[in-house]
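Subject: complex prediction, re-run

Hi both,

The earlier run crashed halfway through, so I resubmitted it with identical inputs.
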Amino acid sequence: MSASIDYLLHLADNAVVLGQRNAEWCGHGPIIEEDLALANVSLDLIGQARLLYQLVADLKADGSTEDSLAYFRNTEDFRNYALVELPNRVPLVGYAKGDMDYGTTIVRNFLFSALMALVWEKLQTSSNAQLAAIAAKSLKEVRYHLRHSRDWLVRLGDGTTESHDRVQAALDHLMPYTQEFWTASAMEQEAARTGLGVAPQDLRADWNAIVSNALSEATLRESSTEGYVTQGKNQLHTEHLSFLLAEMQSLARAHPEAAW
Amino acid sequence: MATTESVWALLESIPDPEIPVVSLRELGILREVRQGAQGLEVVITPTYSGCPAMGQMEDDVKAALQTAGIAATVITQLSPAWTTDWITDATREKLRAYGIAPPQGNCASHASGESVVQFMTRRDATPAIPCPRCGSVHTVETSRFGSTACKSLHRCLDCSEPFDYFKPY
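This time it finished cleanly. Structure:
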């Protein structure tokens, strides 16, 4: 039971944290169409997170609600991949030109959407009927996210020297974080065994194919995935998650029980 | 005592909050009215997971029931997942007349046959969407995401009108 809940929280936390990160572009998009696009992607992700948190709340049946799970858990309780909590830029050295880099956002959304398109496809046959129903909806949404980010990956990669170098830098920075997709964790093993979830290793070959195909069209070099393997899904986070949660949770915590 | 027929008749005309020319029933959001163990139940299904209009739709249904003095529970059900395939030809024509290009093709067959690994080239990524104003298929997509979760942005190259396209889902 506990492993099932941890697995569902992992899915929900990924969605809410990336939803919050993408929402940082709201009002700051490079062009108005992309401002709208990122807001729409965020809405989908936050909507998926709400459905998943509600499912967890129903399973726990301890008075938890979707809001208590999103706003009243602390950094060390979150189970999202480190990849989704990173800022919308590469480290402030080398190619980074400022606090926000659209290329980094696009590369991250591409790497994550490619994974989730495969995950949701499999979860349509989850042993939990409600998770299967959420997967069927989320799959339709993530396919749009994948097309959107892949389109821009190709446009930027096969664009100007400047855009090419910046997405390549983002790819070099983010690729090592994708190692976390494939390391087996206790909750994922257990979820796969019971039929609730999917074993991540089973998706690796398909994910590699999606990524290689897009990188080649985008004229980008395959980045090394070597390096430290992050453990966000096992509740060990980078320094960035606490700042993100502080912004996301402060209003709800300042006014608990508030309704609007 | 309200019957399922009278509840259908009552809810029949509730418009979509964002596209008021079509009703919730016509969009396939209002799924079922049934006699449950605890009384009448109205089943609705969300469109996009994060559609901000869902709360409004549920409130509209509840308000209509309350005004008519009908006690019924509103149930939100995810499965089967909402699809634009449920939108009838007559409703598609209403969308077109309102200036929104209706969804093209059939999602169900599309989704089952489509592998996420394979991609069409950019040029062919979207089939030609007829302009809802002049009917020309000489149109381009300007953005995959539009003013609401369910629409994308297009432009007609013949009459120069920008227009929304109701995306297949």
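Helices of chain B lie at 4-11, 24-27, 54-67, 89-98, 107-113.

- K.
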